[in-house]
Specification:
The chain is of the alpha/beta class. It has one domain. The protein contains 12 helices and 10 strands.
Length: about 450
């Protein structure tokens, strides 16, 4: 189940037939007159037959009754007209006709610069030069990403870690922000993905209501540029970019990664977590919990599997979890699964993130991470086995205080296989490291 970003032109859709209702056939005057000259058995009626005289008498009776009824209607209408003259007439209120709303899958494809259904409400916007330039930009960027990174990642994974493509009930990706791309590559068959970050979701994106489409699409491109060119989002830049224009929050980014990953969104639900960890759908008049989130259900177009992605805006420091325990309780309900950690700012090296670190150690059968994830010292050799890949050059200068001498020694002793793609802060594959930690 690999991503084929450079084959967008081949996307096709199946539409159900919607035959028009047949026109009501009107009976011609000639046929009607011919039918009236026959009785119920189809026999021709003589003009002087009793049957015809009876019909004529009945018709005359009908005419008399109709005339009387008509006179009564005229009298009544005249009375009503007189009584209504003193009441001012009110014109009927015009009901505004809003454009047909687009579904989340159409919106995702539009934001990703991918072809739409001909009858999509967003189809007219694809003729806008701004969208066409946006589509060309993303097509070029994702094609380069596929050739530079993902194609090599897939081949490397097949050789070194094929077990990661097996089904897993849940994949946890803490400190992820909107980076659905890479957890989907490493764990393509998870039933549920849980992502989180401090970045807000933003409102549901609606291209039909964006006054400056060019500016909004350009901002989306800027938001994703670092992730497409390296392997991570730059947090300080993302905080600014995600607040600009009309496409705000992480949801547009998630939509792009889902659509470009050859998936079809079937349902998007906004909600929040209560203190017990239950996801409650948002509803008018209902007060939400302290941890807002979104649930995105989609179908993988290659495998046909139905999968679910959750994203929550939350603080998973010790203090954040203590004040809003719903997120961790939600994760506990999902049981044990796989975990993914990449470019996580070495936060779990700090004392203020012990709770989330202990959760991952207790609810993971395997963890895929770079050296910025859980420090080596927290993996008990009696419980965990390590497989190392690439080289360990230590953290980048921004985090150099988190250098791990013991990890350096393990890399030197084991002479691990190389990594053929950029990973984490070391986006140059010649400097990258990857660590698989497996529960014994």
């Amino acid at each position: 189940m690999k991503m084929h970003f450079n084959k967008m032109a081949g996307v096709s859709y199946m539409f159900g037939d919607h035959p028009r209702r047949p026109f009501l056939q009107r009976e011609s005057t000639k046929v009607r007159r011919c039918r009236q000259r026959h009785n119920d058995r189809g026999e021709a009626l003589p003009t002087s037959s009793p049957f015809r005289r009876e019909k004529r008498e009945i018709a005359q009776g009908h005419k008399l009754r109709t005339s009387v009824a008509l006179m009564l209607i005229i009298v009544l209408a005249t009375a009503l007209s007189v009584s209504a003259q003193g009441v001012p007439q009110v014109a009927p209120r015009a009901i505004p006709v809003s454009p047909a709303s687009a579904g989340p899958n159409d919106i995702a494809r539009f934001l990703a610069g991918m072809p739409l259904r001909e009858n999509s409400p967003l189809a007219p916007l694809t003729r806008d030069p701004a969208w066409q330039a946006h589509a060309a930009f993303f097509e070029g960027e994702f094609t380069k990403l596929y050739q530079r990174q993902l194609l090599k990642l897939h081949a490397w994974q097949t050789t070194n870690l094929p077990e990661l493509t097996q089904p897993t009930p849940v994949a946890f990706y803490m400190f992820s922000g909107p980076d659905f791309l890479y957890v989907d590559q490493f764990f393509p068959n998870a039933s549920v993905y849980v992502l989180c970050g401090k970045e807000s979701m933003g409102p549901p994106p609606d291209p039909l209501r964006i006054p400056n489409l060019s500016g909004a699409l350009g901002n989306l491109e800027n938001t994703m540029k670092s992730s497409l060119n390296t392997t991570y989002f730059i947090t300080k830049d993302m905080k600014v970019d995600l607040q600009q224009q009309n496409l705000t929050g992480v949801l547009p980014v998630l939509y792009v990664f889902i659509a470009r990953g050859d998936k079809s969104i079937t349902n998007v639900t906004f909600g929040s977590l209560n203190s017990n960890g239950a996801f409650e759908e948002a509803a008018p008049g209902r007060k939400g919990g302290s941890t807002p989130g979104v649930r995105i259900r989609y179908t993988d177009n290659q495998s046909g599997n139905s999968q679910t992605l959750y994203y929550f805006t939350t603080d998973i420091s010790d203090g954040g979890i203590k004040s809003s325990p719903g997120f961790l309780r939600f994760c506990e309900r999902l049981g044990v699964g796989s975990s993914f950690l990449k470019s996580s700012s070495y936060l779990m090296f700090e004392q203020g993130f012990a709770t989330i670190r202990n959760f991952l150690l207790g609810h993971s059968n395997r963890i895929v991470q770079d050296d910025s994830g859980i420090p080596l010292a927290y993996f008990d050799p009696n419980k965990w086995s390590l497989r190392l890949f690439g080289v360990y050059l230590g953290p980048i200068d921004l985090f150099k205080q988190h250098y791990q001498p013991k990890l350096q020694e393990l890399f030197r002793q084991s002479n691990p296989p190389p990594v053929d793609f950029g990973f984490g802060y070391r986006w140059n594959y010649k400097e990258a490291n990857l660590i698989l930690v497996q529960r014994k």
